[in-house]
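Kindly go through the following sequence and its backbone structure tokens. Advise at your convenience whether the structure tokens fit the sequence:

___
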Amino acid sequence: ISDQKPLGCWSVKHGQVLTCPVVCNFETHEYIAVHDDKVLRIWKNEDINLDKAFKATLSADVHRIHSLPEGGPLVLFKGGGVRTLDVLLEAPQQEIENVISDEAIRWSEAFMESQQPVVVFATEKDGDFFVYVQKPKLDSLHKYRLEPQESCKPLSFTAYLKNQTVTLLCLYSNDSVYQVLIPLERDTEEEEQILPKSLLLNLSVSGSVLKGTSLVVLDKDHVAVLGSLAAPGKEPKECLTIWNTKFQTLQTSKELPLGTSGQLWCYEEKFFLTHGKVLTVIMYKCETSSLAAAVGKLKDSQTPGVSSFVNWDTLEGEELVVSFQSQESVALKSESRMNLRSRRSSVAKVQPENFSIGQLLLNLKDAPTNVLENELKQLLSKAQTPDLQAAIGSVVTALTNRCKTNPRYYPQSFLLQIVETRDLSYSLCPDLMAVALEKKDFYLLQICLQRFPDIPEEMTYACLKAFLSISDAYLRMTEVDLDSVICYIDVEFNSKEVKTEIVENGFNAELDQDACDTKIPRQSHSKSDGESCPIGPQRAALLNAVLHSAYSETFLLPHLKNLPAQQAIVFLRYLYYLYVKCSEKVNTTLPGVRSPTINQILDWMCLLLDAHFTVMVILPEARELLSKLHKFVRAQVRFYSELNKIEGSLRELQRLNHLRDSQTYSIEVLEII
């Protein structure tokens, strides 16, 4: 997310508006959206055009769709009616009852209880707030009124369900959090029962008040509140805070200087919030709360006021993960460096066997190289830890930090072993590829490009430039994985080209020689268009790894424009060679492991031409290459155009085959005009 890799994008038509958040159906792996209040759309990840996706027009306006992992999607209408998606799709125009009158829904959530879905939503009318609990499959509905509060009103809601009771937490405008208990089954038949509330938390620390805008519940003892911290005589600062509701203490916080939208989401122990113009993800972990821990945290404060707030991005210069090992608090990891800071009292003596990974790495900071590697190998060989991925990232970070401080140190085999055997990503070890580039470790870079899903475009470009600029003599002495090229590259050990004999998909170099107006000098058959690879197998394998790396065109194109012209021509020659190779096969697929696909080849060709088209037109050697490419593409277009002409006849032939009685013998003559 930090590198903004779009995995899919779908758009509604001009004039249409998505009117509620899109959700995923966990059972069918489909997306569900509503536009213009009543139009339901359902599609899968591989679908490209949203306009061609499944469409159903409903009879009432939709407020929100809730998707439960085990209960399926639930549709909440603006009138308060609820339907499961299956029931709704059976008759999209079915009448939806109005449960509420002149009330606006302010919040809603869905839960599973005893294998039955439960929808809870809060409404507002003339300053009064109501809560509805509905079980759509059991046709059960209960309405409650929230106990009114003078001179303040609820700003945000969150809830959790346990033991047949919904615990509703309400963030009020008086900087307090109140708790409301709602039974799923009530004894009385009162039409409108008033729900009492109890004060759960005051959002104030030593005179500083948090003006909350959104809250989420983490567990029975912790809540997260997003808001603006207002200290006397100081400018308000937006913060994400974690509070211990059991002991009324501020657990930890993070300042958000770029501002937020005021919304906070929580899913699978991760916070999601907008920070500036980006979506930020912060992982957390709740542990059992205890009074001793809460008191210990208060004693740990060195200065009055808001000193109990933690700077999550600081660990005295060390970019290491330090997890909470005591049973008191909420551990959080920043999305950029995955840094945590333990706020344990420094007076407490920690036994070696209870060391956190961060503490172990700090102790090994100045250890000899052999001791460091042995300890890290033992750490990785242990049983699965609760946060194994972050731990591995910390180990790699410790190794790369040692490489920076000691230029002679580079544990190539150890790093390669970690990358090949562990599920890593670029964000977990952001300095690894930079160090590998500096050391010219092209094998490690190749493996990283193949395995890391989140490499920034700047790093992808740096690898591409390095692969194109290194000499052939150096590459021949370099270990590279050749699995992606060994099955199709036309290079023998004696460096003589091997010509291609079979040409399919409508292209033949000799037949189409005069298809282009530009006159190109005739070359020997062994070096005709695309028949021999213009680069060596080692360089080709490295470039294939670049072709496999995910990227966003918007962010890659500015870097690609800085590629030297001669290197761009070499790269384009290789892409052209791959394009011809793919077109030789009926299925347009190259043999081998992790070989480039036709789409990857064409996408990179378009990118390279967009970035360097002016230079390509001016340089003589590039003009010749562009002419060949133009001739080949035109032949491909002509061939597929001819196929399109007989498409109707082929479909008719297929239809006749289905209609033919297989038990009778016949001879048919079909004339294709």
